Amino acid sequence: MRILGLDVGTKTVGVAVSDEMGWTAQGLETIQINEEKKQFGFNRLKEIIEEYQVESVVVGLPKNMNGTIGPRGEACQKYAELLSETFQLPVQLWDERLSTMAAERILLSADVSRKKRKKVIDKLAASVILQNYLDSKN
């Protein structure tokens, strides 16, 4: 059973997918979106869901450090709800606090240039979110 992991921002969605056993997460790509224009990248997500035979989705929920949910978290909750309605798949929200920072540290330790980091940070953050979710289940 493959699981899709998403790191949802205002302009991009980082995408990761699990292996068939649900043990490891691999970053796939970053999809350009536009929340204001209600362009959520669902056409591309549909292709990915079909290609990888995804059975469930994990969406990162950016909580504040004190555990509360702010405007960005609310936007992710709405995105997850719309995703569930559109694709008829179970969607789980996962606390993603510090996932982008963890992804940034990984890229910095690998000495990836700032320009290249910007291109891959979202899909790596999606991988971190999904891997943390998978680890909690195994």
TrEMBL record:
<keyword id="KW-0540">Nuclease</keyword>
<dbReference type="GO" id="GO:0005829">
    <property type="term" value="C:cytosol"/>
</dbReference>
<feature type="domain" description="YqgF/RNase H-like">
    <location>
        <begin position="1"/>
        <end position="103"/>
    </location>
</feature>
<comment type="similarity">
    <text>Belongs to the YqgF HJR family.</text>
</comment>
<dbReference type="GO" id="GO:0016788">
    <property type="term" value="F:hydrolase activity, acting on ester bonds"/>
</dbReference>
<dbReference type="InterPro" id="IPR037027">
    <property type="entry name" value="YqgF/RNaseH-like_dom_sf"/>
</dbReference>
<keyword id="KW-0690">Ribosome biogenesis</keyword>
<dbReference type="GO" id="GO:0000967">
    <property type="term" value="P:rRNA 5'-end processing"/>
</dbReference>
<dbReference type="InterPro" id="IPR006641">
    <property type="entry name" value="YqgF/RNaseH-like_dom"/>
</dbReference>
<dbReference type="InterPro" id="IPR005227">
    <property type="entry name" value="YqgF"/>
</dbReference>
<dbReference type="InterPro" id="IPR012337">
    <property type="entry name" value="RNaseH-like_sf"/>
</dbReference>
<protein>
    <recommendedName>
        <fullName>Putative pre-16S rRNA nuclease</fullName>
        <ecNumber>3.1.-.-</ecNumber>
    </recommendedName>
</protein>
<keyword id="KW-0378">Hydrolase</keyword>
<dbReference type="Pfam" id="PF03652">
    <property type="entry name" value="RuvX"/>
</dbReference>
<comment type="function">
    <text>Could be a nuclease involved in processing of the 5'-end of pre-16S rRNA.</text>
</comment>
<dbReference type="GO" id="GO:0004518">
    <property type="term" value="F:nuclease activity"/>
</dbReference>
<keyword id="KW-0963">Cytoplasm</keyword>
